[in-house]
Amino acid sequence: MMTMAMEYQHKQVLLVGLACLDIITVCGHFPIEDEDFRADDHYWQCGGNACNSAVVLQQLGDQCNLMACLSENCPQSDYILQKLTNIGIKSNWCIRHIGHKTPISTVLINKKNGSRTIMHYSWLPELTLDNFQNRVQFDNLDWIHFEGRRKNMLEIGRMMDYIRLRYKDRIKISVELEKKDENSLQLIPKADVIFIGKDFAQAFGHDNATDCLRAFYPLAQSSAIMICPWGDYGADGIGPPQSNIVHADALTLDEVVDTLAAGDTFLAGTIHSLRKGESLLKSISYGCKLAGTKCKQRGLMFEKIPTDH
Within the chain, which residues score under 50 in pLDDT? Predict the structure, then answer.
């Protein structure tokens, strides 16, 4: 990890996955069907797991690139790309498709408890290995993160194989498994760092993070790290040298304002710390701290970034 710690400031991170437009409505309570009532607020922001994590990582000082599919000649896609450019995220490797709509997430945020309810729309083609090989310039990358999208698991696996064959261990590979798919488990042995989502774990019958790691870690390579965030429980992780499960508590909150993208924020904070060469425990602890801080505010732009020490 020390080599990574010394070099990370001179290298960049690529996040591969979804970028979409979040159309957010803030409600005083969660609506019942056929109810007519006045909302408290309404706004747009960039969304999508990979995009959200890039927004947070960039604020932490990591130089980020985003690769996603977007629409061509579309004001919503132009909005997303302009927002990314404004904070320094490179998006020139994104694929633009003519004749398609921009992916949209309609989000209801309940002011009573900060919960978010998401309805997602997307019919864009998924990224392909050809897109990946022909568009990405790998020389300045030391970390590539893949959002494990259900419609694209096999193609993501091919991208991971390409990195490993071509660049060996020079580029770290991480993957997030959030939704169950019949091909998702095939990605675990291909990655250096695996993030297992709560929904994914529960879909396989695991009701806590510790049991999840015990079940899935044997599928990983012996040098890999596996992490399972679990909401207000915190997060568990396992990896070398001891391969013991470690635990980090979630940040205690007096008030929850907005939980949208808290998991993406956790992922960003954890990757940031791992790239610096921090221990697994310190890395997931910082991820929890950052995610908790995000839940106390609206959106992903921090007025003051929490430190990782």
Answer: 1-4, 6
38 in any annotated domain: no
Question: CA-CA distance, 300 to 265, in Å (whole number)?
Answer: 8
Backbone φ and ψ for 173, nearest 5 degrees, come out as -115, 125
In whole angstroms, what separates CA 296 from the centre of its chain?
A: 19
Phi, psi of 162 (to 5 degrees): -60, -45
pTM of the predicted model, to two decimals? 0.94
DSSP state of 295: H
For residue range 59-93, what is the model confidence (pLDDT) as tens digits?
A: 999 999 999 999 999 999 999 999 999 999 999 99
Residue from 108, 91, 116 nearest 43 by CA: 108
* Whole-number Cα distances in Å, 125 to 42, 99, 102, 122: 29, 11, 11, 9
The enclosing domain of 201 has a CATH number of 3.40.1190.20
Q: Are 251 and 232 in contact (CB under 8 A)?
A: no
